[in-house]
Design goal:
Layout lengths: L23 E12 L2 H7 L5 E2 L2 E2 H14 L1 H4 L10 E8 L4 E12 L4 H19 L7 E11 L5 E2 L2
Antiparallel strand pairs: 1-5, 1-6, 2-3, 4-5, 6-7
Amino acid sequence: MSEFSHLDEKGKATMVDVGGKQVTHRTATARSIVVLPTEVLAKLNEGDIQTKKGSVFQIAIIAGIMGAKKTSELIPLCHPLGLDNCHIELQLNAAQELVIDCTASLTAKTGVEMEALVGASVAALTVYDMCKALSHDIVIKETKLIAKTGGKRDFERA
């Protein structure tokens, strides 16, 4: 891709016109990685953290799905999309980091990469919010696209 898709020929911001595109089944998976300090990890080793607000993991999953559904309200030039599905999974990796994967899908003329990225990000931010009383040393290390299918080009991170 040699040009920005959200700029017109005069360099002004514009929503991409998807009117002529084909409707296809599209999926995208994004990942956020949260580095948890020992105070938080100690609580996690006992299982999901229960707070006065509820289960950290369950609330993060719900928040991530809500975030994915509201992507066009947060990112100005995103098309409003009715997702067919959104799934969020949380797990600790070998480095004792919390890995949050968000997979969004729909059948439409435009992709769901941003919805997956927002879903993973909002879930990570929710973990931070719910665990910050234990420590402010929580770090959201990265958020990235893992894979997408159904558009001009499929993508899978190696």
